[in-house]
Write a structure and sequence with these properties.
five-stranded mixed sheet; Peroxisomal Thiolase, Chain A, domain 1; alpha/beta; 314 residues; globular
C-alpha cells in the first residue's frame, strides 16, 4: 500500500481561438485598461466546435506521454468539470473511450475547486491501494455558459483543459490536502437550470465573491502550511486557481510569499474553473520553473462555496 500519490506527468490544452480584451471592447462597455486593472486578464481562449472532452483528450494524452505510460495502464479516471458534454453519460467515460483506457471513470463537479477535489479523491484511491495509476483532469468550456452581454462575467472566463497522472509512491507526493464547503452562499455564484432543456448563464455577486475568496483562501493557505510544519520559505511555488490577480496577490501577501514564487497564467488564460490549476502547473513544469522535489501549494475556491488546498512535493 503506497503512502503517497505522486504526480508523474502533466499535460494541458488550450483551444486556438483567442479572445482579447480589445475584442470585448467591440461588444461590451469596457476597455482593456479596465479589465486588466480589475482582474489581470489580457486574453482568454474560446472553443468553436470543440467539446469539453475534446480539450480533455489532448491534455490527457500530453500528460500520459509526459508520465511515460499508456492509457491501458490507468486504474481510474476522474474528470472535474462544470460543463459536461452531456447530461449523461459522464464526460469521463467519453474521455476513457477517446484515449483507449478500460478503467472506471467518473465526473466530479465542484466548479473552480474541482481539480483540488478530484486530486484529493484520487489520492484516497491510491493510499488505500484501490488504484495505482490515476488520471485527474480539469476541463471546461465555460464560454458556453457565459452571457456575453454581461460585462461583469464575460471578461473573466475562458476554455481549456489540464491533466495530471498520479502514481503510488513510497517517498513523496501529495503531503496534505484540505476540503471545505459552505452551501449558504448559493446565490453569490451560480448557474440556474430550469430543467426544460435550457441552461442559464453564470451569475455572480463579484464584490462578495472577492471578499470571501480572499478570506477563505488566505486562512486555508496559513492552516495548510502550519499543519505540515512548513514555513513559507520552504514553499517553492504557489499554484493557485486563476480567478483574479487581486485575489492571488492578496493571498500571497498574507502568507508572505513573493509574487515571483506564484505561478500566474491568468493574463493569458482567464478563469478556466476546474482547468486552471492543472493548466498553470503544466505551463510551469514545461518551462522549467517547477522541478522535481519542489514544494507546491495548490488552492482554489468556487461556487457553492467549495474550496480546498493540496500541498504537494513534485
Amino acid at each position: 500500500m503506497s503512502k503517497f500519490a505522486r504526480i508523474i506527468g502533466t499535460g494541458s490544452y488550450l483551444p486556438p481561438k483567442i479572445v482579447t480584451n480589445h475584442d470585448l471592447e467591440k461588444i461590451l462597455d469596457t476597455s482593456d485598461e479596465w479589465i486588466v486593472a480589475r482582474t489581470g486578464i489580457k486574453e482568454r481562449r474560446r472553443v468553436t466546435d470543440e467539446t469539453t472532452c475534446d480539450l480533455a483528450t489532448i491534455a490527457s494524452n500530453n500528460a500520459l506521454e509526459a508520465a511515460g505510460i499508456n492509457a491501458s495502464e490507468l486504474d481510474l479516471i476522474i474528470l472535474a468539470t462544470t460543463t459536461p458534454d452531456k447530461i449523461f453519460p459522464a464526460t469521463a467515460t467519453i474521455l476513457q473511450n477517446a484515449i483507449g483506457a478500460s478503467c472506471p471513470a467518473f465526473d466530479l463537479q465542484s466548479v473552480c475547486s474541482g481539480f483540488i477535489y478530484a486530486l484529493t479523491t484520487a489520492e484516497q484511491f491510491i493510499k488505500t491501494g484501490a488504484a495505482n495509476k490515476v488520471l485527474v483532469v480539469g476541463s471546461e468550456t465555460l464560454s458556453r455558459i457565459v452571457d456575453w452581454k454581461d460585462r461583469s462575467t464575460a471578461i473573466l472566463f475562458g476554455d481549456g483543459a489540464g491533466a495530471v497522472v498520479l502514481s503510488g509512491d513510497e517517498e513523496t507526493g501529495i503531503l496534505h490536502s484540505k476540503l471545505f464547503s459552505d452551501g449558504s452562499y448559493l446565490s453569490s455564484l451560480q448557474v440556474s437550470n430550469n430543467y426544460i432543456n435550457e441552461t442559464g448563464y453564470i451569475e455572480m455577486a463579484g464584490n462578495e465573491v472577492f471578499k470571501i475568496a480572499v478570506n477563505r483562501l488566505s486562512s486555508l493557505a496559513e492552516e495548510t502550511l502550519k499543519e505540515c510544519n512548513m514555513s513559507t520559505d520552504e514553499l517553492d511555488w504557489m499554484v493557485p486557481h486563476q480567478a483574479n490577480i487581486r485575489i492571488i496577490s492578496a493571498v500571497a501577501k498574507r502568507i508572505k510569499t513573493p509574487m515571483e514564487k506564484v505561478v500566474v497564467t491568468l493574463n493569458k488564460h482567464g478563469n478556466t474553473s476546474a482547468a486552471s490549476i492543472p493548466l498553470a502547473l503544466d505551463v510551469a513544469v514545461r518551462d522549467g520553473r517547477i522541478k522535481k522535489g519542489d514544494n507546491l501549494l495548490f488552492e482554489g475556491i468556487g461556487g457553492g462555496f467549495s474550496w480546498g488546498s493540496a500541498l504537494v512535493q513534485f
